[in-house]
Structure formats: C-alpha cells, structure tokens
Design a protein that fits this description.
The protein has about 400 residues and is α+β, with helices and mostly antiparallel strands. The protein has 15 helices and 13 strands. The protein has a 5-stranded mixed sheet with strand order 9-10-11-12-13, covered by helices on one side. Helix 10 packs across helix 11. It starts with 6 loop residues before the first strand and ends in a 10-residue tail after the last strand.
C-alpha cells in the first residue's frame, strides 16, 4: 500500500483557516444572519459575568456588529431554532443538534447520580412535584421554588430545589424555555423543543459519528483530542475510534506551530479547497471575549498563535499575572495584545485601564488608533461612552 505523505500547512495558513472557521476573517459588518452564525460556530458559550457585555452577546457581536443582545433570547423564546444545554459549559446550540445531543443528556444525568447529587436535593416524589408545577404553570425559574433557608450555605452551594432543577435539566427532563436577563426559565421539553427535533430518534453510534465529523469540520484540522474537546460530548476513546473508522476519508496533515515545529493532525476531505477559499483576515482590530470560541482551547491557541492565556477571575488578586477579566486583541491573523477595562455604568463610561502589547509586536500609533475605534464601537454596543483611553502600554 502506498504511503500517503501528509499535507503540510504553514502556520500562516493554519491561522487563516482557523480564523475563517471561527468567522473572524471577514469584516464584522453587512447583513446579520444570526442563526447561520450559530450554526457555523456550532456553539456559543453562555456566561454570567458582565464586564462590557456578557460573553454570548459579545461573541456574536464580534462576528457581526449589527447584533444586539435581545436578539438571542428572542430567537430562543419565539423562533425555537436554538436550544440551551451543557457542552464544556452552558451553551447555545442549533436546534437541529437536539437529536444528536440525547446521549450527552443521558450521560450527564448518569454522571450526576454517580457523583451523589441525589443525596442533597428533593427526593423523586418532590422532583415529580416540581415537574408537575412546571407542567401546570408553564415556564418557571428557580425563584418560583424558593424555600425558607435552613442555614448558611457555602458560596457555590446551591439550594436543594435548584439542584433538583439542574439535575432534571442536565438529564433532559426539563429544557430551557427562555431567559430574562440571565435568569433561566425551565419548561417541559414538549413546550420548548419543536416536535420535529424532539421526536427524532438517532442511534448512539450515529450521534457519535455526527459529533466527531462536525467537530472536525468546524476545527478545519485537529487531533482526536481537539475533536473530543470541541463539544466535550464524546470520550477520548470514542474520538480515537471514530478517526480509526473514518481514516480513509480523512486527510493527514502536518500543521506548523508558531515556533516552526510540526504537529501531526487530520483534516476533512475538502481541506485543499478550504486552503484555496479561506480569505486573508481583515486588518480590523477586535476585542475578543475571554470565552470566545476562537481562544477557548488554550492548547490550540498557544500552538497556533504563541499566545499564553488564561482567565484569572478565580485567581487571588495578588497572584494574577494580568487581571480579573482581560480581553485579547486580534488584529489580522495575530493576537497583538490584551487589555483590561474599567466600567462605570452609573456614569455610562467605559475606559481603558491597562494595555499589554504582545511581543514581538510594537504598539504603534496606528494600532492605538484602531483600538480606540473598536473601544468606541463596543461601548456603543453596551450602551456606554468611552472615557479617557490614553493609557501607556505595559510590559507583561
């Protein structure tokens, strides 16, 4: 059997492919296709923290700056073409993924039982009463089940009724009907998920195949570990088995790292066409959210861009290398720096607090001007104005 030589992908081309797959190559303007954006990304992570804007809204705005925050929740509540569940974290997913997500729900439910969740929450009859109340009253939030406090709880410890709601939601017995602000309203699946998707049965192996194939398609290239981490819905063994089974239709590639080293990976069958089609990224400077899918996989981020990044919200202030909530700066196909901002919502002001250029990129007046323009744009998105932004660049 002839030996197939891997297709070598330069680091510049790898970054170009990845940013195109993440919808960060084109200018973030033009007609807004919100559901198309979510489908192409595959998932949009939800997060409670709001500095400039909550992560999910910021992520979508970064792809098209005509996006406004109410659009996502309206789509969930009225159009029902997305649903919410748990990937590596709470995320928005395209509704057509629902049949492919059943094993994930089942496994999460089984995992919670194995981890002892049943010990510290309402018993089966009380959980049935919660379900019955939601069936009778319609979508309800956790506050609708508040019970008198039985004493102090640890900071992250949930009330028993909230643990029960989460258990039912993770396992698929409840679904997210909609959100108000960031408050989740729970409903029976038949009230929140269209019958077309809720009633579709897909064999477990077909779900695994779909998840692996679609992960690699959205990655453009990757290892079995990359495929596993994308949705966090298959095991490492399942990812390796899928690769072994589909090896004939996958293209072996060698992807150049930022430091010139090569990593063996796999790519979809159309990788050469993707290399021809993927545009060079626009020079527009973008302020990326810490939970942006383009930077979520830190191993991939450092491999392609040489950009070491972590979120330090849970790191004690004295031990932080950068800051509480630091935004990476993308310009073209490079991560050229990171910033921290100050917010004064009462005064309606956003201001640049600290700026760290990323070596070896010089912080030029042109780059500073592009940053200030983007600060103006993101401030308008958040309903704010920009205060003083003339901040001297800092050494990391």
């Amino acid at each position: 059997m002839p030996v197939v030589m891997p297709l070598r992908i330069s680091n510049r081309d790898a970054r170009r492919l990845w940013l195109d797959a993440q919808l960060l190559s084109e200018m973030p303007t033009g007609p807004l296709d919100l559901i198309g954006t979510i489908r192409r990304l595959g998932l949009v992570q939800l997060d409670t923290i709001r500095v400039i804007a909550r992560a999910h809204h910021h992520i979508l705005w970064s792809r098209n700056q005509h996006y406004r925050a109410p659009m996502l929740y309206r789509m969930m509540r009225e159009e029902r073409n997305i649903f919410e569940h748990f990937t590596h974290d709470a995320s928005i997913l395209p509704i057509e993924m629902y049949p492919m997500w059943r094993r994930r729900m089942q496994r999460l439910g089984d995992w919670m039982v194995a981890r002892g969740w049943l010990k510290n929450m309402p018993d089966e009859s009380e959980r049935a009463a919660i379900m019955a109340k939601i069936a009778t009253d319609g979508p309800l939030c956790s506050a609708n089940f508040d019970a008198p406090s039985t004493g102090p709880r640890a900071m992250w410890e949930k009330a028993p009724h909230k643990r029960a709601l989460d258990f039912l939601w993770y396992g698929g017995a409840l679904a997210t009907a909609h959100r108000v602000g960031f408050t989740k309203y729970y409903a029976l699946p038949e009230r929140a998920i269209p019958a077309r998707w809720r009633e579709q049965e897909v064999a477990e192996q077909a779900q695994i195949d779909w998840l692996c194939e679609n992960a690699l398609s959205r990655l453009a290239f990757g290892t079995p570990g990359d495929i596993k981490r994308f949705w966090d819905a298959v095991t490492m063994k399942e990812a390796h088995d899928w690769v072994a089974t589909h090896k004939a239709s996958l293209v072996p590639v060698e992807v150049e790292s930022h430091d010139g080293s090569l990593a063996k990976m796999l790519a979809p069958a159309d990788i050469e066409q993707r290399l021809l089609d993927a545009p060079a990224p626009t020079s527009r400077l973008r302020i990326l959210n810490p939970f942006d899918p383009a930077i979520r996989d830190r191993k991939r981020l450092e491999h392609l861009f040489g950009f070491a990044y972590r979120i330090e919200i849970f790191v004690p202030a004295a031990k932080r290398l950068w800051g509480y909530y630091v935004y990476p700066l993308l310009e073209g196909d490079r991560l050229v720096g990171r910033i921290e901002v100050d917010m004064d919502r009462r005064a309606g002001l956003l201001s640049l607090a600290r700026l760290w250029p990323e070596a070896p990129w010089r912080w030029t007046s042109a780059r500073q001007s592009r940053l200030e323009s983007e600060l103006q744009r993101i401030a308008r998105f958040a309903g704010l104005s920009v205060g003083v932004s003339a901040v001297a660049p800092l050494e990391p």
